[in-house]
Design brief:
Number of domains: 1
Distance between the termini: 22 Å
Number of helices: 2
CATH topology: outer membrane lipoprotein receptor (LolB), chain A
Strand order of the largest sheet: 7-8-9-10-11-1-2-3-4-5-6-12-13
Helix content: 10-25%
CATH architecture: Clam
Oligomer: single chain
Order of helices and strands: HEEEEEEHEEEEEEE
CATH superfamily: Lipoprotein localisation LolA/LolB/LppX
Length: 205
């Protein structure tokens, strides 16, 4: 799992950034699935996202993460091992779902141009997120005008990271998608000594 850390971080940043832009729009689609193509300095990789209300599931390279704000947990699921780990969502409002609806988060969007992304007519914006008066993140978002302003592309400010949402399907996701598959064993999170990372997960007895 460790070798995917960089790409996964980039992917979560893209989802957060585009998600905030999306949440700011009154016509936001609250139930959808989509393929995601993310390009970073490490290369290009694909993943899939499922979203319903505040629940989210992301699949990438044989693993998946399920965010359940209603239960205040995130499940890291490993299909090959038929196991999963559980981590509490950050109660200090640093997790993705909290930021989407945090009243202290201010979204500033500046229109740049009309463009086409994956056959969707879209408006390109430069967007800045400010939290408690402090600038947190800036970058570019393309919103598809034929999909209720759904964000179909994200690009970081330095243009080193981009994500394109493809094969978008709305109103198709069921609640069962956000559950750990039956029969999977729960693993304990790895214990990390202070100042150190790594370590393998230990099976819960």
């Amino acid at each position: 799992m460790k070798k995917f850390t960089g790409p996964l971080v980039a992917l979560f940043v893209a989802v957060l950034f585009a998600g905030v832009a999306f949440a700011a729009d009154m016509s936001a689609i609250k139930n959808y699935s989509a393929d995601m193509e993310t390009t970073t300095t490490q290369g290009t990789f694909t993943s899939k996202i499922f979203y319903k209300d505040t629940k989210m599931r992301m699949e990438s390279k044989g693993s998946m993460n399920i965010l359940r704000p209603d239960k205040k947990v995130m499940w890291m699921v490993m299909p090959e091992q038929k196991s999963y780990m559980e981590m509490a969502l950050d109660t200090s409002k640093q997790d993705i779902q909290s930021k989407l609806h945090d009243p202290n988060v201010k979204v500033d969007k500046e229109f740049i141009a009309n463009e086409v992304v994956d056959k969707h007519p879209a408006k390109k914006y430069h967007m800045t997120l400010t939290m408690n008066g402090k600038k947190e993140k800036s970058g570019y978002v393309w919103e598809a005008t034929d999909l209720s302003n759904f964000p179909v592309k994200y690009e970081s400010e330095d243009k080193k990271t981009s994500t394109v949402w493809k094969n978008i399907k709305t109103g198709v996701v069921t609640d069962a998608v956000f559950e750990v598959p039956a029969g999977y064993k729960k693993m304990s999170m790895p214990t990390m000594p202070e100042g150190m990372g790594g370590g393998a997960p230990r099976k819960k007895r």
